[in-house]
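User: Before I run my own analysis I want an independent prediction to cross-check against. Here's the chain; please return only the structure tokens and, at the end, one sentence I can use as a sanity check.
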Amino acid sequence: SYAFEDIEIVEKEIVSTLNAHGISTWFDKENIRVSDYFERKILDGLKTCEWFLLAMSPNSAKSEWVKDELHWAFKNKKENILPLIIKECDPEEFHVRLGRMYCARYDMYPDQVMGELVRRVLY
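Assistant: Structure tokens:
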């Protein structure tokens, strides 16, 4: 889940790196087509994914869509939530539980975090 304002980081850096390592992703830009009901398509995508990646930034902290998707993930994905800080922000702005989770600092260590993320998903 991400804010549209952060699409360049998410698409060109995170999603492309995951795909390059053979990890399939559900990404709205690639999976929602003209005339689709995007709320339904997003829910379908959430249901079929094994992992929920949260790209945290001041932009996504303000997004009701991101908060709704995160709430769904906490309810349904439980241990398979991958919180990444892509721009400086407070994880508790998203959900109090994120304050108790390790949130990877992509904004500070992008290569290290992507390596850790790939290992976590693959193994």
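Sanity check: The first strand starts at residue 52 and ends at 56.
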